[in-house]
Amino acid sequence: PKPAMDYLNDWADHNKGYAFQEIFGIPVPFAVDRFAVENKGKLTKWNQDVRAATADCATMCAFLLDMAMAGFPTQNTASLLEGLTGITLTADEVQKVGERVNNLAKAFNVREGFTRADDTLPERIMTEPLPGGASKGHFISMQDHDRMLDEYYEVRGWDRQTGVPTKAKLEELGLGYAAAELGL
After folding, report:
1. Distances (CA, A) of 95 to 1, 76, 106, 155
2. What is the DSSP letter of 158?
3. pLDDT digits (tens, 9 = 90+) for 12-68
4. What's the burial of 45, exposed, middle or buried (CB within 10 Å: 0-12/13-18/19+)?
5. 156 CB contacts (<8 Å, ≥6 apart)?
6. What is the pLDDT of residues 61-70, one digit of tens each?
7. In whole angstroms, what is the distance from residue 108 CA to residue 173 CA?
8. How distant is the alpha carbon of residue 139 from its chain centre?
């Protein structure tokens, strides 16, 4: 088996929270203002869950799903799964697979000692305005980061103070064994 740190490094993937909606103005699952703080937690959760289920688990290209099938990647994955295996899932059930993956990964990281303090960005991103480009002069302040992280934890069903998935959320997802492992 891989050492714990290798699994954690796998999680630090540029695709995990990539918001194609902000870059290309694609209003799926909803329109966003890339400079706004509101709805970033909700958008990040959606992107992570959909990508985990449709790209990571199904081994499909995330960029293809984002650009060519932005409105229906989970339905596409459900249809492919049914055609290949005969197993019928709804688009929502496919997305729930991604939610389970992300909650299990978070439970693993919590078990390994990671806390809310580890869910952060490099200091430079939160203190230095960008010198050029379409985002010239912008940066993510620590205050904005904390607001977005609070929203993210809330929509995930995780404790806002610690970032630990709640027992109720893990049990809802059929991951009660992970809650027990965390002593919840």
Report:
1. 28, 11, 17, 14
2. B
3. 566 667 788 988 899 999 999 999 999 999 999 999 999 999 998 888 888 777 777
4. buried
5. 41, 45, 102, 103, 106, 165, 169
6. 887 777 778 8
7. 15
8. 21
